């Protein structure tokens, strides 16, 4: 085994660039300052009317030019900004990345105002169904049609950054961002490429999305104090807060990074995944799929459970998910879990859905780089059934050499990543 290969003889995968956009701001600098200050980006929704909605708060990204142009346009801008920061930060050509692109994004669909506009342009003398078909055929030749296609965002990003090969678009619910990273890692490990661009982006905090998640009783309804609504692992948690964001990582074989003198920000050491076929939204009560995903990631990294210093939790703030995550972590780590630092960025930025796994991977890298663990804010009423050190309310200085980042999604999607500060 050379210094550039891991315990299984595969190329070691380095992280050489990162980019981040959330409701806390654009770029690594602003986001890291806010996260370590324990500042929330959750606020009342102003983008669309919220009359008669149970939830009227969100972590929307309202400061971008495309914030009022629909989910597709905003998702693209979030992805483009994060990827540009990551690629330039890796000292690579932002117009000629020369590697494959893997994008985690929400299923693209037309917003209601676009659907109604489509309907209004149809021939009103025709029956309703024929009228809509005719309008759809007409708009197949327009930007509206392209914007509604699942792979269109990745295609545009591929052209923008000069990616190689067919860009991959994936949607594995809340695990999507971690899955995109895993696909990039595996492409490098198989020797198919020396670098890959993994992106998670989601600008789909629409009225329709809010209604859908409300019907599942998944969202917090604590609207009076938006900044206090997301409270992972607290006894008075009542649901997650819908949010938007984008994150990108440049993944590169360690050999390639060394050869061009790139700064290595961290090592993507291991990936683990496990499907959960129990329910469309609920996790299996015994936590076995999540347990298996955590163990698989640690084993893939060639590490022992005792070598994990910190867990960047999925930590959604829903009653059931937080309980299940505690069960899975306590099963894997045993009594050590009570003293092991575990925090949730979602307490500050909300749940960025398709982007979450990538956002939290970037924050995990920053945690190792700076030796600072961002807190879990709003932890005022501990849950006696969940005994965890959640780094409550205030950041913590700590030497962190390894991180486990969890992503447990609706539909049974579970993906975990292990990152280290050093190759060994």
Account of the 3D structure:
It is a single chain. By secondary structure, the protein is α/β, with parallel strands linked by helices. It has two domains: 13-109 and 148-420, Peroxisomal Thiolase, Chain A, domain 1; 112-147, no CATH class. 33% of the residues lie in helices and 18% in strands. It has 13 helices and 15 strands. Strands 1, 2, 5, 6, 7, 8, 9, 10, 11, 14 and 15 form an eleven-stranded mixed sheet that branches. A two-stranded antiparallel sheet has the order 3-4. Helix 2 packs parallel to helix 6 (152-161), helix 7 (176-189) crosses helix 13 (356-370) and helix 10 (288-300) packs across helix 11. The longest helix has 19 residues, at 71-89. The N and C termini lie close together (12 Å). The model has no long low-confidence stretch (mean pLDDT 92).
Question: What are the salient characteristics of this protein?
Answer:
two-stranded antiparallel sheet, 15 strands, alpha/beta, 2 domains, Peroxisomal Thiolase, Chain A, domain 1, 13 helices, 424 residues, 3-oxoacyl-[acyl-carrier-protein] synthase II, eleven-stranded mixed beta sheet, Ketoacyl_synth_C, 3-oxoacyl-[acyl-carrier-protein] synthase activity, 18% strand
Concise overview:
This protein is α/β, with parallel strands linked by helices and 424 residues long. It has helices spanning 28-37, 71-89, 112-120, 128-139, 143-147, 152-161, 176-189, 207-215, 254-259, 288-300, 319-333, 346-349, 356-370; strands spanning 13-22, 25-26, 43-44, 57-58, 101-104, 168-170, 195-202, 245-253, 266-275, 310-312, 342-343, 372-373, 396-397, 402-409, 413-420.
